[in-house]
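Suppose a colleague, Dr. K., hands you the sequence of a protein chain of 354 amino acids and asks what its three-dimensional shape might be. Before reaching for any lab equipment, you can write down a predicted structure in token form. Begin with the sequence itself:
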Amino acid sequence: MREPYIIETKPLPERYARGWHCLGKASSFGSKPTALNYFGSKWVAFRGEESGELFVVGSYCPHMGADLSRGKVCGNSLRCPFHEWSWGGDGVCDDIPYADRIPPKAVIPSMPVMEENGLAFVWHDPEGHPPIPEQRPRRNSDYFSGEWSDWNIAEFTIHSNCRELVDNMADMAHFGPVHYSQVQTFKNIQDGHTYTQVMSGGHDILADEGQGFTSVATYEGPAYMTTTMVGSMDGREVTTHLLVSHVPVNMEEFIIRLGVMVKKDPSLSEEENTALVQAYTQMSVDSFVQDVEIWNNKVRIDNPLMCDGDGPINMLRKWYSQFYMDVADISDNITALKEHETRIKYPHAQAGSE
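The predicted structure, expressed as tokens, is then:
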């Protein structure tokens, strides 16, 4: 009698990935404090009234525990609603209105912040090191060209550990049953802190029947992934940039943001381009929510039972582990340039095709 395969799921230590995490559109943050529940803690984001700079600091005042997200911005600092202690964007208390001396220990946590491509990011590092310069998200010149739409972003809450979603980069076999894709070529490339998936074939949602579909998706670090896709709709070629970025709330929940930016068609009016963007954005969301349904109902598996047609899941997981270990422990083998092309057994007969 054959023994059943035993799924292994070891408890994970509470540790969040080192790297840049996208908080959404930069324009969504102003001088009004915004509460953020990420990395197992509560934070508050605000813009300085004078500098316009975006800051993210711990949300609880160490004086008497008040929630700073309910405070107000004064100049470039955040005042506590309880006793009006003032906190700078670097986390250092810079004023106590009724005191002659600020306690030397009056410092709250803060995170490095950057803005790029119309998006806001925070750097998280469990070791407390500053951002690694070469891991800064790359500038996308298309965003600034005027030839593309702005980001349209939808948010989803997933009740699972955030490491689960990254498996998709190597999971060729799910694109047919889940996304109605007809995959013809599928390649993975890892290099340092980046991991790229190159795919071509057809798509029942994002491409017209019988038309080709290409996708190049790249993770820059543990949580920021962008994709350039070329599909079609109603006889028109449609090129999009897709954002898939997540931030952990805690070890068993994360927020994922799906952003869509569409290249405008110069032959269409502004109104027609707006309609095109809205329609293709909805199609992208419709395709993406199929993943959400899977993530919210699966279990984490440390020892996945693989077959010879699966993509390089183990290669991907080894690459991804670098963001959860101390920098000094990352070996060259983990970050070395590697490529893997998955053999497609039945390119024209995957689930979802007719």
